[in-house]
Amino acid sequence: MEGTDKHEWSNILLEYLPSGVIFEICKHLTWQDIFHISQTCRRFNQLCDKATIWLQLKSLDFSKCMIPLDFKVLDVVKRCPQIEFLKLTNVVSSENARKFREEETTPADRFLLEVLRHCPSLYTMDLSMVELTDNSVNAICTKCEQLRSFTLIDNDFISNEGIVNLLSYLPLLSQLHIIRCTNVIPMIKHKDEGKVLALKDIRIESCELFKANVSTLLKSCVQLEHLCLIDNIVLQGFPNSIPNTEKSGMNTLKTLKLYSQPDMREVNFEKMEQLESLKVKQCPHLLHVNMWAPKLHCFQIAKCENLKSVNFYDVRLTEINLSGCENLAEIGVDSPVLKSIDISDCKSLTAHQFLIGINIKSCVDYINMGGCNKMNSAEIDNIIQEVYILAY
Question: Where does the F-box domain lie (predicted)?
């Protein structure tokens, strides 16, 4: 801008802002952003070299580093002793590659221990590192007693015993995610018999999981609110044998997600008093869904082509979508607020079964029956007459 003097520029250029304002802006930046702005001019380089900026950082995420070398990651960590969130992904070791025995620490173990020495205030830890072992778990238990959330991804060496120790020695842990960990068949419980866990949010993905494992999980996590199970081979059903009088996660669970369960055959719940949302996807061998859940208001199902029966007792569903369930022959929904029903391409469902299955029809204003081959035009007309209100 020709004719503009330095004083006018100082009103619009970030470089001329007071140091206090720049420090305040940096509170909202990532560590990568701070490194980038430090390279723009001499003043920013000097400001970003001050400890004040780094001391106020609460989160370090190294997952977007192209080559996260351990000594460079550690250099950043040492600058930020107040961080509460740490995410490490495939950190590259500067140590010479060597074989190690199971009882020895790996380079990844030694790196993580050094990191933890400089992070006394961690609340959330997200680790995607293949070579971490139970030695790292022991270090976390010792150094991170205040940890609330722990995620472990793509690990080959941490064992069931390591997970149990983690849960037993971190009393404040409320969120646990275990994803693609080949050496773990998750036993979610306290090491001391009779003690329960504070976990409220659990995700287990791509791990072997048996019905007994889920039952143990529910009995141990008496405050459980959110459970997500994805791609767990050999899991054939969700346990329903826990007595209603026994305190368990069955009494507190609010959301349940069952995705890509190749061996699951049924989902049966006698009583789920707090369940609000059930989502089931890509369970090709699922045959039956039956539950009593007075607070259930969200049900989603997709790619469960062999499903034969769905029964919901005393629920609060406003809509139900069973489109594409070609083998569905039985439906039962007891909801006083049901408005929308999609049974398109349910080729095995008869009009009679549909009418006796929808107990309360007074609020229904939408029905999609396209592709229901077992219903003729007269039967469809009869369904329309049975419904109190029907809007097209």
Answer: 11-57
Does the pLDDT at position 23 exceed 60?
Answer: yes
Inform me whether the pLDDT recorded for 386 exceeds 90. no
Which among 205, 210, 86 has a CA at the least distance from the CA of 140? 86
For position 84, what pLDDT does the model report? 96
Task: Give phi and psi for 62, each to the nearest 5.
Answer: -105, 15
Rounded CA-CA distance 311/308 in Å is 10
DSSP string, 66-94: SS-BHHHHHHHHHH-TT--EEEEESPBP-
Q: How far is CA 361 from the centre of its chain?
A: 35
Average pLDDT, the chain: 88
Q: Looking at the predicted structure, is the pLDDT value of residue 66 above 90?
A: no
Residues 6+ apart with CB under 8 A from 292: 269, 270, 271, 272, 313, 314
CA distance 214 to 274: 18
Contacts of 143 (CB under 8 A, 6+ apart): 116, 117, 119, 120
pLDDT greater than 50 at residue 201: yes
Residue with tokens 């941490």: 158
Residue % of the chain over a pLDDT of 90: 64
* CA distance linking residue 165 with residue 168, whole number of Å: 5
For residues 343 and 350, what is the distance between their CA atoms, to the nearest angstrom?
11
| DSSP annotation string for 212-244 | HHHHHHHHH-TT--EEEEES-TT--EE---S-T
Cα distance between residue 386 and residue 37, in whole Å? 68
Residue 14 DSSP class: G
Residues 6+ apart with CB under 8 A from 313: 291, 292, 293, 332, 334
The continuous run of DSSP H or E covering 175 comes out as strand 175-179
Residue written as token pair 């609340």: 123
Task: Please check whether residue 133 is in contact with residue 154, taking contact to mean a CB–CB distance below 8 angstroms.
Answer: no
- Under a CB-based contact definition with an 8 Å cutoff, are residues 322 and 299 in contact? no
Tally of CA atoms within 13 A in the half-sphere of 201 that contains its CB: 9
Distances (CA, A) of 76 to 30, 36, 52, 114: 11, 14, 14, 12
Burial of 3 (0-12, 13-18, 19+ CB in 10 A): exposed
Pairwise CA distance, residues 58 & 324, whole Å: 47
